[in-house]
Design brief:
about 900 residues, alpha+beta, Immunoglobulin-like, 8-stranded mixed sheet, 5-stranded mixed sheet, 28 helices, about 40% helix, binds tryptophan, binds zinc ion, Peptidase_M4/M1_CTD_sf, metal-binding, aminopeptidase
């Protein structure tokens, strides 16, 4: 851990590297109590920098390195002595004597005690690596920055019995027994130049499933997924997802895979979802393993999406990579956009859009409004690991999506073709991406680029006016941007906001959209480009006052407001031709109804629910022609976290009370319709073997949401149905929902029994036990914190495993809001203690778990004081990692 004050790094200070590394030859000798890393780097002066220096003396070579024990250094074949180099806690500096040279280093490292899960570490007995963003410097001295791209050759040696499988990037070129008894080695060569963050190494006792993929130019690619032996029966879904991804990227983006082999390795201890290392993706086992009995539908869909995401990085990230870490969204925003498109094509596009937007609005909007708010391309950071954020990923994907909307499918494809062609093998910037889009389409995105530099969620207030005599209808848009750290709102310039929209007449028919000055219209849906702070669009030939449908498909990541009344929202719910907006109208209606009840609760009045919401949802529920997944989405009330996000001052108790009251009302009033749909779908589930496909997901989702509502009625037949579903389901989707409804119910004996049976059946499956922890951590019944504390003592729990921390602590602080925000501050104290503990051994996870406390400004003054005090206590708790230091100090600033 660093003890010196962490320092801020700025985008404006970017300079190209002084030296380049053409070839990287690595040798790893893995042992139980240490490992040795020998690196031979074939280097030369960066001509670009030499030109700038105009023949001056050669600059020193400063290599990154952390937690390395230096054993030897050779420069141009001459052994250096300590007088010849400078060593600090994060660098090694030598003075080259010529433009081209080789540098040889040997270091000793300790993967066996690496708990930060960055660099080379051990997970469940196997060796694995995580180098993004700056983990490679914990493996060897290097120019650990993405604009230094090198050809890697890697030799790994280890005990043959314990580590029969030895993997690295690229192709296996040689292998054999070592001279030393019981050991063996393998050499891998990656023909593609890559930055160090894409390096990977794996050594372990692994089994694999294998398949092949024939590319569009008829090349055969070997596909292997490596897992611990007991998990080979849970890889097929990931393999199917991989093949679908490879085909989709050829069909939709014209991108072909480039090596002869593609490998995925599942590891149990992993800080994030997965990592796109060239030819050797390393995955959190939760993002690979899925089969009916142990993984829910949501888990299956997550596996499919993450496999696709990492595979797509082969082009958007690896072949074309980032110049520096400020450009992270160049690869992440774009790749999320690509994986969303893939998931939309594999499943229901509307449902995928609804889920993405609900997530963005709840979590990214909250980030954008909090102390860590930053632009899609940040301009400074202390610790880059803190910037793998919802803003860089999800908002970054929305920004790419707006480009897609503005250019259309074909224009966008022309842009990506040019981008890949122009920059293949290069490390580039977000500006280069935009430039390719502009050049391929002959457009000017100068103003659009503000999305990359201005932080915060823009507001877009819309008003209308109808002129009966002229038969014109006008929409006026007023945009504004909030103040975010370092960026006053009033200094922000207008964004380009694509607003997809339509107009509905009194029958719900879509009107042709003709703007003043345009030729007669045929289209009934179009995209308005809002580019000014205030701008009016006037439609002509509008025979009657229409109802606007705005921001269809959520065409821009903004907070749009239009003064709809509840009847208008109900009308849109039924008639809007845009599925996303039908859902959104329902959400807006629900928000209005819930906000009434939140106000009633605050005034101490009895809660009364607007019956129109019940009527509207009854209509949806009874319409058997609707996609069942859509019905399920419409039936889901906005979450508490979203209601908090849209509050001025969030009253957690009132929000919880209002939402629970609404759920109870819906359950009581819709119970017949819910029961009918539940029974039909449950019967089908009983008759159909599990299939991980869209219409099956839809059926089970509706079945399960119906069950969750029905359980609130407390009827004995519902309890019996839940128990039956728990006991007899052949899949985790039904079983886990049954468990969850029991856990959240007042039926203590049934609950205890189900929890016990579940734990007994699945005690050997860590990922299933994560779900068992999560269901309990999320239960909003009183006493939540005590239950979580007790679960931390469970033998299956360990703080050292990030999935466990997320399953128990993350679920409690992120989803169990009524308990986490207990008025006595006990939830805050608990979380702060854990962050302090985690900071000592896994800074990345510590910093991520801290997020809920950073939102303290959202709450009432008593809670604010409690949360702030905990942040201050963390700050004073001793030497902090740069990760935690950055988040805590910015939160208190
Ligand atoms: N590039 C990874 C992705 O696909 C992100 C990632 C994986 C990561 N592991 C990490 C980032 C560890 C930081 C630290 O999104
Ligand atoms: Zn990614």
């Amino acid at each position: 851990m660093r003890t010196d004050q962490p320092k801020m790094i700025y985008l404006k200070d970017y300079q190209a590297p002084e030296y380049l590394i053409d070839e990287t030859h690595l040798t790893f000798e893995l042992f139980e109590d240490h490992s040795l890393v020998h690196a031979q780097l074939v280097m030369r002066r960066n001509p670009e920098r030499a030109q700038l220096a105009q023949g001056g003396a050669l600059p020193p070579l400063v290599l990154d390195g952390q937690l390395l024990e230096l054993l030897s250094v050779k420069l141009a074949d001459a052994e250096l002595t300590p007088q010849d180099y400078q060593l600090t806690s994060d660098s090694l500096t030598v003075q080259p004597a010529s433009e081209s040279f080789t540098l040889d280093t040997s270091v000793k490292i300790h993967p066996e005690t690496n708990t930060a899960l960055e660099g080379l570490y051990k997970s469940s007995g196997m060796f694995c690596t995580q180098c993004e963003a700056e983990g490679f410097r914990k493996i060897t001295y290097y120019l650990d920055r993405p604009d230094v791209m090198s050809k890697f050759t890697t030799t790994v040696s280890a005990n043959k019995q314990a580590f029969p499988i030895l993997l690295s990037n690229g192709n296996l070129i040689a292998a054999g027994p070592s001279e030393e008894e019981g050991r063996h080695w393998a050499t891998w060569e990656d023909p593609f130049k890559k930055p160090a963050y894409l390096f990977a190494l794996v050594a372990g006792d692994l089994w694999c499933i294998e398949d092949t993929f024939t590319t569009m130019t008829d090349r055969k690619v070997t596909l292997r997924i490596f897992v611990e032996p007991e998990n080979v029966d849970k890889c097929q879904h990931a393999m199917d997802s991989l093949k679908k991804s490879m085909r989709w990227d050829e069909e939709v983006y014209g991108r072909e895979y480039d090596l002869d082999i593609f490998m995925i390795v599942a590891v149990n201890d992993f800080n994030m979802g997965a990592m796109e290392n060239k030819g050797l993706n390393i995955f959190n086992s939760s993002a690979v393993l899925a089969r009916a009995e142990t993984a829910t539908d949501a888990a299956h869909q997550r596996v499919e999406a993450i496999v696709a995401h990492e595979y797509f990085h082969n082009w958007s990230g690896n072949r074309v990579t980032c110049r520096d870490w400020f450009q992270l969204s160049l690869k992440e925003g774009f790749t999320v956009f690509r994986d969303s498109g893939f998931s939309a094509d594999m499943n229901s596009a509307t449902v995928k859009r609804i889920q993405d937007v609900a997530y963005l609005r709840t979590h990214q909007f909250a980030e954008d409004a909090g102390p860590m708010a930053h632009a899609v391309r940040p301009d400074s950071f202390i610790e880059i690991s803190n910037f793998y954020t919802l803003t860089v990923y999800e908002k970054g994907a929305e920004v790419v999506g707006m480009i897609h909307t503005l250019l259309g499918v074909e224009g966008f494809r022309k842009g990506t073709d040019l981008f890949f062609e122009r920059h293949d093998g290069q490390a580039v910037t977000c500006d280069d991406f935009i430039k390719a889009m502009e050049d391929a389409n002959g457009v000017d995105f100068t103003q659009f680029k503000r999305w990359y530099s201005q932080a915060g969620t823009p507001r877009l207030a819309v008003t209308e006016s109808y002129d009966t005599d002229a038969k014109t209808y006008s929409l006026t848009f007023r945009q504004s941007a909030p103040t975010t750290p370092g960026q006053p709102g009033e200094q922000k310039l207008p964004f380009v906001i694509p607003v997809a929209m339509g107009l509905l007449d009194a029958e719900g028919q879509e009107l042709p959209l003709r703007l003043q000055g345009e030729a007669p219209a045929v289209n009934t849906s179009r995209v308005l480009s809002v580019t000014e702070a205030e701008q009016t669009f006037t439609f002509v030939d509008i025979a009657e006052q229409p109802l606007p449908s705005l921001l269809r498909g959520f065409s821009a990541p903004v907070k749009l407001s239009f003064p709809y009344n509840r009847d208008q929202l109900m009308f849109l719910m039924q008639h809007d031709s845009d599925g996303f907006n039908r859902w959104d109208a329902g959400q807006q209606l629900s928000v209005q109804v819930l906000q009434d009840m939140i106000a009633q609760h605050q005034k101490g009045e009895p809660l009364v629910m607007d019956q129109r919401l019940i009527t509207a949802l009854h209509t949806v529920l009874s319409d058997e022609s609707l996609d069942q997944a859509m019905v399920a989405e419409m039936l889901s009330l906005p979450g508490e976290a979203y209601l908090i996000e849209i509050s001025e001052v969030a009253d957690v108790d009132a929000i919880h009370a209002a939402r629970e009251f609404a759920r109870q009302q819906l359950a009581d009033n819709l119970s017949d319709a819910l029961w009918k749909r539940y029974q039909t779908n449950r019967e089908l589930s009983k008759q159909t073997p599990y299939v991980a496909a869209s219409e099956h997901f839809a059926r089970r989702t509706l079945q399960n949401i119906a069950l969750s509502y029905l359980m609130l009625t407390g009827k004995p037949e519902v309890l019996a149905a839940a128990i039956d579903q728990f006991d007899t389901a052949d899949n985790m989707t039904e079983r886990l929902t049954a468990l969850a409804v029991l856990v959240n119910s007042p039926f203590d004996a049934e609950k205890a029994k189900a929890l016990e049976v579940f734990a007994e059946n699945f005690k050997d499956n860590a990922l299933v036990m994560d779900q068992w922890f999560s269901v309990q951590a999320g239960s909003t019944l009183p006493g939540g914190l005590e239950r979580v504390k007790a679960l931390m003592q469970h033998p299956a729990f360990t703080m050292k495993n990030p999935n466990k921390v997320r399953a128990l602590i993350g679920a409690f602080a992120g989803q169990n809001l009524i308990n986490f925000h207990a008025a006595d501050g006990s939830g805050y104290r608990f979380l702060a203690n854990l962050v302090i503990e985690l900071n000592g051994f896994n800074p990345q996870i510590a910093s991520r778990q801290l997020a809920p406390l950073t939102r303290w400004r959202k709450y009432d003054s008593a809670r604010q004081a409690l949360m702030k005090a905990e942040l201050e206590r963390i700050l004073a708790s001793g030497p902090l990692s740069p990760d935690v230091y950055e988040v805590v100090s910015k939160s208190l600033a």
